[in-house]
Amino acid sequence: MAGPNRIFLRALLALMLAGCTTSRPVLPPEEPPMHSVEEFRDQRFADIADPWEGFNRSMYKFNFYVDKYLFLPVVRGYEYVTPVFVQDRLSNFFGNIREVRNLTNSMFQLKGMESLTTLGRFVTNSTIGLGGLFDPATPLGLPQRVQDFGKTLGYWGVESGPYLVLPIFGPSSVRDAGGMAMDSGMRYGIYYGIDPFGNTDHEFEIASGITTLESIDLRHQENFRYFDSGYPFEYYMVRFFYHEKRDIESKGHPKE
Amino acid sequence: MAYVRLLFLVYLMLWPVWCQAEEDSYGYPIPGSYDATILGTPAKLIPELPKKIPIRQLVLDIIPDRQKPEIFFYDEGLRCTAAFQKQKAPLVFLIAGAGSSSAAPKLLTLLKSLYQAGYHVITLPSPSHPNFIISASQSCIPGDLNEDAADLYRAMEAAWNEIKPDIKVSDFYLGGYSLGGTQAAFVAKLDEGRKIFNFRKVLMINPSVNLYDSVMRIEELLKKIPGGPKKEGQFFNRMLARFSEFYRYGNFIAINDDFIYAVYKERLFSEEETGGLIGLTFRINLAGMIFTSDVLTNSGYVVPKNKVLENTDPVYDYFLVSTHLSFFDYFNEYFYPYFKKKRPGLSKQALIGSLDLKSIEDYLRSSTKFGVMTNRNDFILTKSDLDYLSELFRERFKLYPRGGHLGNLEYKENLAYMVDFFNGKEVPKDGRP
After folding, report:
1. How high is the ipTM of this complex?
2. pTM for the model
């Protein structure tokens, strides 16, 4: 993984420095437009706290290039060589592993019924579903309840904090980025506790192969493409939808 | 334009069936015009379409010498979406509705449906979509049906030249919905002179008769909210608060189909508010068009004249300004002055009159290649518009009892009618395909 990482860093640096080196052609002076924001007496809308907008927009652009030159070609290759049936089994398999995250976090939120549902799902799909390759739990009335540590923090009243576009991972917030780190920490804790490939000679290769495959599967399942809408205010729409969805879904039930 | 839907329009693709059909034989279930427009077609009533289709994206360099501002760095050419048969087949061009890209979900459903029926298909973005303004519009000022038709025709020629070596085509067909439906008529007229495609059949789905009047009717929807369009921000925030409150007090798993179904069933938003949300969505779309056009023409309308914008510059204030401008503002302060300069002596009335199917009425009446599908409760048309279309296209005018504006586009009967129309099957006026 050292190679791609270095490329990311270089591209990242190049992008961040690009702003300093551009020289603009000499243009006639700016003239005020016919309509400006001062003339409207209305509330701002779809506006989310974003003090690092400059950085975030650079990351947004950076992610566009990472997608374009790395992820999307890889995903296209994957989709080309892998039968749809196999793709779906892999998606189910990795989804089943993530039930552990869903379970721990619904427990952190003291949601009894939900925890039982998720546990039931995990057990059903791991056994009858052949190690998570199939999902017999959903038709049996055990729907998936996606949880993560960012939502757990939100549930206990932690505000999302400023909007943050992470390199590679995309739209997030200070709270959710921390939550993601916590979830990965727990995951690797569990992984090292179980140590499933410890008795093979190629533990590192197997583990990194699986991680790579999971990243490919995640990008394969994600339809979002940076700048794909062509809408000049796409950045704000994505920011708004991300924030609202997280905010609405993570808030505690007021009666609980 | 996936992002330009409001929060609760986002998760509608897999809609459960819940409505009772009215007492007629037409099976599309949602009676309300605004509800149908927002909710679209329940997933179970969309026919099964092939899952794996060889979809290809065409990126066309139509105006090679255009200087693209850095803020639009990602725009590499006009993006059309295509699906081709292996064998010789007729080719259908489809034009998207106002503000939509060539990969808008509704347009892709039409593409898949026609592909399934054995056609080659190429979809084009609407001339009001930013990608088209940047990469395919000569004037960069969208809205004139004649100029837009010329731009569309040039784009179709470019697409055809690009794919000519790869596919075998027997005939050409043309279709479009909403604004794209009206534009299809003007493109067909242009083709009568240019004769590159000789379109055999042209289908207009939920078109407007007069573009200006139709847009005004959408703008009307926003006038009914408290404080009117100038307070759309307040309206948006109030609707959002109600939406999220509703979620918190209900026992919902996620913002998914069940939740949206509950929003609809519990009548969380009144009729007027639902209309207001449609009007606001239109404004958010229009804002993208106004801003893009202004940046390209350096007109100083919402962006300071001579200002150079980088892609990483904040542009939220321009978003706020552009969404607060109505189509009326755009027409009077930006669109009309441009055409007046080009054609001195042009009156506003004459310009509005040119944005009308009536301006090419003689041609439309003389040709039998046209078909129209629309709905009795499509709010962009008046009763007299419907009478006019019926009189003009007679047995080739298909009127559905409901569906709002484009709500029933993906409904199985509608798709079957569309395919039958291109197949050339005779369809009785009140009968079903």
Report:
1. 0.89
2. 0.89
